[in-house]
Amino acid sequence: MFKSLHSEFEKKDTDLYKFQQRKGFSKYILIRSLDINTLKEIIKDQTGNDAKSSKQDELYKELFDTDITIDKLIEHILKKYPEEREYRLEQEKHLPAIIENFGDVKCGIRNDNMNDVAKALVRDKSILSKKELDRRVNELLQGTIKGYLLWQYYNQVTNDLIEHIVNDHPSVIPTIRKIHDVDFFLKINDEIVPFDLKITHISNDFFDKYTKGIELNIDNKCNITDDYCINDRSHGELEQIKNLYKVTKEKRLPKMTGQSKEDLKNNLTSLGIEEINQELSALEELKEIKTYYSQIKLKYDLPNMSKLSQQGMVDILLKYNQTETEKLLEQLIAKRRTCIKQLETDRKILEWWNYKNQGERLFKNNNRFFVFLAYRNSFEDARPLKGNVDSLKNLISRQLDAISNGQELNTINYYYDKDKNLKGSYTINATSVIYASEII
Questions:
Q1: DSSP for residue 143
Q2: What are the helix (H) ranges across 168-255?
Q3: Could you tell me if residue 169 is inside a domain?
Q4: What confidence tens digit (pLDDT) does each residue in 44-71 have?
Q5: Is 147 in contact with 381 (CB distance < 8 Å)?
Q6: Which of 284, 299, 328 is the last residue of a domain?
Q7: pLDDT at residue 216 in the model
Q8: Residue pLDDT, tens place only, 126-143
Q9: What pLDDT is attached to residue 343?
């Protein structure tokens, strides 16, 4: 039994919900969370003899093959953990001071794939000299890559600090060593339930689809095994921002088709750039004005939307169409506030969304305790709120109280189709909290 359990757990594509139903799972997963010294100590305590091996995998099997009970394993873990906790706290005592005034950092690299960033540079045929190449490399190192490394550091440190909140809860069974896809355990209805602690922001994409409408999948209206359906009949956040951007871009420098010489001149002078006005005063012929208009449009036209994030579009709109943009933002922020208020009482829809839309590279169907972060008054990524560890403590502790008593643990059904090798219907358990704040 041990061999098949151990082999399946180590596979990247193992469905942990199905794996959790296997006979012997609770015993196996608790043993799998132990380090070598603890394994040896428990084997000695259980059998009266020293362990036969010093190799981790062989120690797992040796302990698994004993008649040790789940309760006895838990007893050993809870006895051992305070020692491990003190060691970790000593190692991490300087970390809160580092992240206290860390500043604003952004990940900047999708799916942690730094290779894509390098490819974009090395394949760029527009670089005309070694000097320009050196400049581009330095910009990348000081910009995207530096930001990525700082974000990864911040992300890891805050995760470690928040894990202490979870592990200090009286109902939690901690892991003595780090194992993949599991951060802690709870005993619920006499079963060991593993959880992955997932701290993340509520994405702009979720707010966009929530604005359109996400509704329960009643009578299989989606024709797939999802708990919810996306309603595409109304305009989402992103579509409304894009529509305003299109209008603003066209008003700034309209296309030349159907415009008179005076129209073109008026469009150019409306930019309010003295250099353009001076050069324009020397032009009289329609043909030369059109040529100049094309040059100016190329230089001063607003960027294409495909090159911009949602926040990037908002920043440009605030500069060139402030009144209309502020009016739209006020409406969208009001809807976000309403959305967050609703999610604070029922978060299953958000849990479902995050399973269904998880990235292909890090896909896993495992039980999760989500900590969702959001700004009520901004479109900015709210992950910097991870640093507010003290503010998260009560939220997390209350939710652990609830699920320890068999409450607020949701069963999520979702259909995944981002990767053909992972495509299919999944079921999993999840719970969550939301920490929302105002950006200053």
A1: I
A2: 204-212, 237-252
A3: yes
A4: 999 999 999 999 999 999 999 999 999 9
A5: no
A6: 328
A7: 86
A8: 888 889 889 988 988 888
A9: 94
Supply the pLDDT for residue 192. 92
Give 68: exposed, middle or buried? Use CB within 10 Å, 0-12, 13-18, 19+. buried
Give the torsion sign (CA, 128, 130, 134, 140). positive
Overall domain count for the chain: 3
What is the spatial distance between Cα 435 and Cα 382, in angstroms, rounded to a whole number? 10
Give just the sign of the alpha carbon dihedral 250, 251, 255, 258.
positive
Count of residues making up the chain: 440
Taking the CA atoms of residue 129, residue 132, residue 134 and residue 140 in that order, the dihedral angle to the nearest 10 degrees is -140
Rounded CA gap, 299 and 276, in Å? 11
d(Cα 244, Cα 248) in Å, to the nearest integer?
Answer: 6
Q: Does any domain span residue 336?
A: no
pLDDT above 70 coverage of the chain, percent:
98
Structure tokens at 171: 């109902």
Q: Which residue(s) pair with 43 in the sheet?
A: none
- The pTM (predicted TM-score) of the whole model is 0.86
d(CA 106, CA 341): 26
pLDDT at 202: 95
d(CA 195, CA 167): 12
**Is position 339 within any domain?**
no
pLDDT at 168: 95
Domain boundary among 68, 90, 112: 90
Q: Domain limits at 185? A: 94-234+344-437
Distance (Å) of CA 338 to CA 93, 346, 352:
39, 13, 19
Inside any domain, residue 337: no
Question: Is residue 424 left, alpha or beta, with left meaning phi > 0 and alpha meaning psi from -120 to 50?
Answer: left
Beta bridge pairs of residue 174: 184
Q: What distances in angstroms separate CA 419 from CA 123, 356, 423, one per listed residue?
A: 26, 12, 6
